[in-house]
Write a structure and sequence with these properties.
The protein is mainly beta and 162 residues long. The protein contains 1 helix and 9 strands, in the order αβββββββββ.
Length: 162
Amino acid sequence: MRNFRSALLVALAIVAFSAARASALTIDVCADAMTDAKFDSTGTFFTATAPIYPAGTIPVSSTPVDCTRVTARSIGTFFTVGALVVGLPASGPTDVGMVTWHFRLGNKAFDTAGPVEGVAPGQTYPQTVIGSTFVPILINSRATVKALDPSGFVFEIKTTGF
């Protein structure tokens, strides 16, 4: 019984230490489909990279954001690969694409995957956190994506800690 209590106390200490280090992460991404993305010959599959900025750098806008006018210093690089799903029989009415996203912040990184939804600026949709490196984010947790303009390429993403 004494060994069980000792093991339980150690496990609780580990959980408490991990929880104390964990925190939510929110960042902004500004990509221009014309300069930051490459599409295949069908215009269906794509890859892109773009700068990452601190949360709140890019305000919500009803018109497309000109990423060249963002004067804040980039804190990382966003990478994506994906495909358009608009009009496919099983796609929902707001489904635009299916993506894998990678967010590199120095020596830290996290990844999400899921559908991209065509929502109005200021509206949100979920992504699933599928991996992280040196970032205290719970894998398989929900990240919330907020559209910052109507293009779908400028957004804020917020993760939850554990």
